[in-house]
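Need C-alpha cells for this chain, all 130 residues.
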Amino acid sequence: MTAQTQMARTAISPSGGAGGWITATVRPAGELGQVDADRLAILLGALSMSASVVVLDLEAARLRGGFSAAVVDAAAEALEARGGCLLCVNADDESRASLASAGEHAVLLAPADGALAGAHGPVSSPTVDG
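Here are the C-alpha cells for all 130 residues:
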C-alpha cells in the first residue's frame, strides 16, 4: 500500500478508524500574504487529510489579506468535514478579523478571556474536571 493510499484511507475520520488522534501544531512566522498562501495551502491541506486537530499558532505571524485567511478556512472546513478541528491561537486583531471574514470553519481562541469563538460569536469551551 502506498503512502497516498494510506492517507486517503485515514482521511475518512480524524482517528483513522482507531482510538487515537493525531494533533499537529503549526507555528508560522512573519507576514503571511498572498505570496505565502500557496505554501500555507500545501501544508494545511496535507495536515487536514491526516491530522485530527491542527493548532495554528499565530503568535509570531500575521495574516495579511484574505488569501491566507481563506486558505486557513478551507483547511478548517476539510478537517470539520472529517470530524476534526482547526484551532487558531495567539492571533492579532487583524488576523482574527481576516479569519472571521474568510468563513466560519476555523475556531479562534479569544486572547482576553480564553473563550473559544467562531467567526459568528462565542461557542462553548470544553472543560476538564480533575
